[in-house]
């Protein structure tokens, strides 16, 4: 018995929704802090970016004040959680009130730019609760650790380039260093936009577009936008991002000890892009291409801590990978993959705040709640394992899985139950 890719693709398209997971209560205690940040710009740098860097320094200093109210352990299930990472997380949710004041002071051949900003933060139960939650999620910690490391690297690079510019003797040397400084500035702005996209998923499409326009080597931004495009059925755009992201990652890692990312980071991002590309090809009906990506991603998964990948992305990877193996009639491998997925989904998900309500003028249906999406994936994982078992002659195992499908269905709204039941009706050989 063969199965059409349209059955699986339709189910996958339904499941691939990437949701915002935080909500701001209507009322929350407010804590106002004032902080001053500064950045010393060199002769070849631009005042606009110098002000942005000074403003971000002010936000980080304000975040350090607010961060004392964020209770977190020194580790997250074995992953290091530094104070710098907590500060980066906290800064993502601080809102500047009013207009920052800027002052400039000449310091030799450079300008010291001091930014004064008043930051308002909800200190009791809203923003701080979000940050506390994030500090317990390994994938979130890993993402912000990567951002923190990128900021430090770019700051160090800017300082080196400033000194090199002052020491340059020819106009050609100065021009080359000036161009490198402007690239450094663009990269810094790009990572700031990526940080904002992490904190505000409802605006991530626009923010990621701007980030990659500024700096086409921002590998994490490619991975994030590829995931977003996959979830919105922009399969061609998704594949373009995974290809560009992999090329940028290869170039970034050629620097040896001076590489932009650690080996673990590189393996994780390569896994994401191969897995996401596999899902896009699968939904396009290119089963052979999908399997090539899925198998490469599965090997990469052995080279880093999988907890640093968002659970929903890894779960959908297993689901689509198993579907591709079913279409190639490798039912044994498909059963193994769905068993891995079911074992993950059998463990209760951590309780997260409800997703925000979309604005009234938002086009289209609101995204599925995480628990609803998880239950839908769980039901379909049992369903497709039943298919794989049935094809191998394991009728008893297939019937047990179908019973599990019915149990999980009871946790879904009626409209979602209908979609899964339609899949069951299309597979009469599985019924007694």
Structure description:
The protein is mainly alpha-helical. Helices cover 63% and strands 10% of the residues. It is built from 16 helices and five strands. The strands form two sheets. Strands 1-5-4 form a three-stranded antiparallel sheet. A hairpin with a 2-residue loop joins strand 2 (75-76) and strand 3 (79-80).
List keywords for this structure.
10% strand; 432 residues; three-stranded antiparallel beta sheet
Q: How many helices does DSSP assign?
A: 16
Through-space gap between termini: 16 Å
The main pleated sheet reads as: 3 strands, antiparallel
Order of helices and strands: HEHEEHEEHHHHHHHHHHHHH
How are the strands of the biggest sheet laid out side by side? 1-5-4
User: What overall geometry do the principal axes of the alpha carbons give?
Assistant: elongated
Structural class: mainly alpha
In angstroms, what is the radius of gyration?
A: 24 Å
Strand content: 5-15%
Number of strands: 5
Task: Give the averaged pLDDT, no decimals.
Answer: 81
Summarize this entry quickly.
This protein is mostly helical and 432 residues long.
SSE inventory with pairings:
Blueprint: H1 5-15, E1 30-41, H2 47-67, E2 75-76, E3 79-80, H3 83-92, E4 95-107, E5 110-122, H4 127-135, H5 138-167, H6 171-199, H7 204-214, H8 219-231, H9 235-253, H10 263-284, H11 287-300, H12 311-327, H13 331-346, H14 370-391, H15 395-409, H16 414-425
Antiparallel strand pairs: 1-5, 2-3, 4-5
